[in-house]
Specification:
- The protein has two domains: about 90 residues, Helix-hairpin-Helix base-excision DNA repair enzymes (C-terminal) (Endonuclease Iii, domain 2), CATH 1.10.1670.10; about 110 residues, Orthogonal Bundle (Endonuclease III, domain 1), CATH 1.10.340.
- Helix content is about 60%, strand content about 0%.
- It contains twelve helices and no strands.
- The longest helix is centred in the last third of the chain and has 17 residues.
- It is globular and about 50 Å long.
- The two termini are about 20 Å apart.
- The model has no long low-confidence stretch (mean pLDDT about 95).
- Bound molecules: iron/sulfur cluster.
- Iron/sulfur cluster binds next to helix 10.
């Protein structure tokens, strides 16, 4: 399978269909990507997008979030799941980041409150560093296509690191997410409109 061409086809169709990830990615700062990813945990993309929009239209920088009361953050992000816990995490992260340089390694990022493997990898890839972030879209689509046969996102990440050349790692997450938001949907994927149907093994999970 030509992986570069696979990614290009997925990216093209996702962009043509205005996948939300491309709209947000284009205008967010690294700290905003970090916070948006914390918000997205166990939440549908549309609900995350609402919270991102509200929070960042109120806060113009990380310092603004650090100064907010937890209750204010809760009010702005209440469209996402577990918003009370996330509001506390976001305030803690903002307080830490407003006092120091933005972290640029996996180890530094995962020391922040509530930041796990997936979030750290998303931020690293956004910063142009070699990382494959496996979220629900990447895990689902990799298995459907037949690139991997895995039960957990951790195992998927391990396998994708072996399959994709390092120079393509940073593209994997946002291309798969965009494709998952527009074509290879969690339920009822649009197989009849899919540009990679010829190579997909259609293992629907
Ligand atoms: S053919 Fe269907 S299941 Fe396979 S990648 Fe395309 S949309 Fe997803």
């Amino acid at each position: 399978m030509d992986l570069q061409s696979l990614l290009e086809k997925m990216e093209r169709v996702a962009k043509e269909r205005n996948a939300p990830i491309f709209l947000h990615k284009a205008k967010l700062e690294p700290y905003q990507i970090l916070i948006a990813t914390v918000l997205s945990s166990r939440t549908r993309d549309e609900q995350t997008a609402k919270a991102v929009e509200k929070l960042f239209s109120r806060a113009k920088g990380i310092e603004d979030i650090a100064k907010m009361k937890v209750e204010e953050i809760e009010e702005l992000i209440k469209s996402v799941g577990f918003y009370r816990v996330k509001a506390r995490r976001i305030k803690e992260i903002a307080e830490i980041l407003s006092r120091r340089k933005f972290p640029e390694t996996f180890e530094e990022l995962t020391q922040l409150p509530g930041v796990g493997r997936k979030t750290a990898n998303i931020v690293l890839a956004y910063l142009g560093k070699p990382a494959i972030a496996v979220d629900t879209h990447v895990h689902r689509i990799s298995n459907r296509i037949g690139l991997v046969k895995t039960k957990t996102p951790e195992k998927t990440e391990e396998e994708l690191r072996k399959i994709f050349p390092t120079e393509l790692w940073e593209k994997v997450n946002y291309v798969f997410v965009g494709f998952g938001q527009t074509v290879c949907l969690p339920r009822n994927p649009k197989c009849s409109e899919c540009p990679i149907g010829d190579v997909c093994q259609k293992n629907i999970i």
